[in-house]
Amino acid sequence: MDLILFLVFAGIAVVAAINVVVQRHPVASAVSLIAVMGSLAVLYLLLGAEFLAAAQVIVYAGAIMVLFVFVIMLLNAGGETKPGRSFVASLLGVPVLIALLALLAFFVSRIYPRDTEVHFGGFRGGTAQAVGRALFTTYLLPFEITSILILIAIVGAIVLARKELE
Amino acid sequence: MMSHIPLSWFLMLSAVLFSLGVAGFIFRRNIITMFMSIELILNAVNLTFITFAYQRKDVAGHLFAFFVMVVAAAEAAVGLAIILTVFKNRGTLNIDDLDSMKN
Amino acid sequence: MQLWLIPALPLAGFLINGLFGRRFSKGLVNTFAIGSVVLAFVWVLKTLFGLGGLPGTYTEHYFTWIQSGALTVNCDFSVDRLTAVMLLVVTGIGSLIHIYAIGYMAHEGGYYRFFAFLNLFMFFMLTLVLAANYLVLFVGWEGVGLCSYLLIGFYFDKKFATDAGNKAFIVNRIGDFGFSLAMFLIFRQFGTLDFAHVFAQAPVAPVALLTLVGILLMVGACGKSAQIPLYVWLPDAMAGPTPVSALIHAATMVTAGVYMTARSWVIYTHAPIAMDVIAYIGIATAFVAATIGLAQNDIKKVFAYSTVSQLGYMFVGVGCGAFSAGIYHLMTHAFFKALLFLGAGAVIHSLSGEQDMRQMGGLRSKIPWTFGVMLCASLAIAGFPLTSGYFSKDAILLAANHRAPWIYWVGVFTAGMTAFYVFRAFFMTFTGKYRGKEHPHESPPVMLVPLVILAALSIVGGALFKVPDFLRTVFPAAEVPEEFGPMAVASAAGLLGIGLAWLLYVYRPGIPDSIASGAKGLYTLVYNKYFVDEIYDAAVVKPLVGGSRLVLWKGIDAGLIDGIVNGIGARAKNIGDVLRLPQSGNTRSYATWVALGGVLVIFLMAALGGLR
Predict the structure, then answer these.
(1) Confidence (pTM)
(2) Is B96 close to A72, i.e. CB distance below 8 A?
(3) Which of A51, A87, C144, C436 could form an S-S bond across to A131 if both were Cys, CB 3.0 to 4.6 Å?
């Protein structure tokens, strides 16, 4: 059961990810990205990260991607028309990517043989209670700092995006 | 046993998503699409963190992923604002046209 | 005994006149300059009388100059009979010439500078003579070379004077190189440079080494005492004022080589080949210089070549084992050569600067005192019987005859030539009709009195100061007994020379010109001093300068060194040009490079860290 879940949603994630990269119009890419995030949320549930799965859907898919779509429509960005001009990217891009993927795959397979196995409910420590406890005790400082970070981001975004003062 | 998924498969999935994100960043010329590729990369990393949290039975991995999400949100806000400004000033969203830092 | 005062007094004169002389009156400059030298002479007399008969060597030790590993060199002065002779000559003749110079330089600019340099010269010369080891002698040696350069180029606004000064100094340096090599060998063999220690050990040293040392010392002497092949600077040195020619290039500095070789007699008596070399060089120089002197028309040039020739005689004396004869001739030569130069200076002074003898003549009636003293000097140098030159020249020729008769015969012929050219100059200057346009006037007493003293010394000084007897305790080498036959031949040659000169320049004045036009090739050769200067210029100077210019300047300095420095700058720029290529401004290429770097880092981490 878990296996089927994993296979289905991993497949959706990969296909959608390919779609993000391949699609010409940004809105299509954005929607594909939302699909990726949704699939990932299910996979988080498999891994016992209940709180994070919820946060993923609410924050990531629900807020950030909406913002993306807003901006795309605001700018009326169309598809790409002109050909690319980066000599380096066209030459080295594919080999580097293949090398990257190959390396990562190699290491993953070497380091993690098939002894650890995941099943639904194998980790019960990802509840909101557990996350909250850790967040407000051990990781309080990063928490506070990130709140300030968000504040700065808001201020920055407003300053950047407003109309010029006449 | 049959319903158990090897841990390495999650990590492989994460690697694939990461590579796809990097590919998108290198090969796409629209700024917003490049940005979305970055979000894809971040999501892949999140998956890795949570996988390791499962392996080590430690909630700290979840917290890392949480903070990644927060920072991604902030970064998305500011980044999109910058893209707006760039579009206002240069009128283009093609990253190859934004090369005034050329030698 | 305070030997150090002897050189210190002229040094004080130099310092005072050099530093403050510009503001002094002429009288004050004179006081310090002449006073210091005369006081030095007085002190020499006091020292010599105080030391009694001077049976041995009296040494005073002042301080340890160099103390380095095995080398210890002290600043010591020592006096023995040889030193005594030299001291008396240097300070005595030096004083007379200083006094003369008051009159001669009275109208010249740079008065204080002249006397300052002259005093400095006296200091170095006295250091040279008093030195008790080779290195202190070398200090004096170099110092007199420096003063020679300064004084030859005294008229520094005239290019030929400064060129002559350069030439003197550079040619001297070549000789000094030989001297330095000799000192290195001496130290290597004997472990010391002290005269006393070196000469004590010399008899048991290997003959080959002593020969080499002897020849190298002779190279140094050739430079300083103007022997073949390094004599070319002396005729040019006549560009300096006449008192300089008299003091430095006749009486004292050029004799330093003779003194040095005589002082090293222990080395030479144990290296017969080196002594032969000295004798050959000496006689060759004497002969060649005399031939050149036959045809010169500048009165100072005649005497310059005469000096070179007479120095050759001194070296013949040393080379034939008669060291005291060489020193004897050194002394008498100082008398009459200084007198010849000073007299020539008086003639030139009375003619307001004319030096060409073809513009002189008939001056006997106009400057009678000068005529008188010049006659005395000419008789002395020609070896007229019973003059000082007669005794000293005969001593040398007798020793030469004893050693190798061919040297004697060449020496006799040269003596004849000497008499001839000296009296040629004398007759051209003083007899006949005056050919010039000036108004000759007699010199002032301040110039005449030293001349008269020197004339007296030239005539009687040889008989009065019997140097060989005096130096018998210093040079145990056997002195040759007087034989009448060779002496008579030598005197006859001198008289023949005088007669021939009288014939050609007084009786039948037209003959010389016909001889010159008849033997035109030979005359041109001799008149142009055998083109030696031109040969040196083409063979040595031009290649050296050209080589320096091409190889050292253009090749190494401008090409290599500048090339390296400039090249570094250019390469830095090249590297920069290459490094700036990645800065394309294109974000996607940057991203690709980042990804590539990341891949490499992961790979390296795995390869180096190893997989668990």
Answers:
(1) 0.70
(2) no
(3) A51
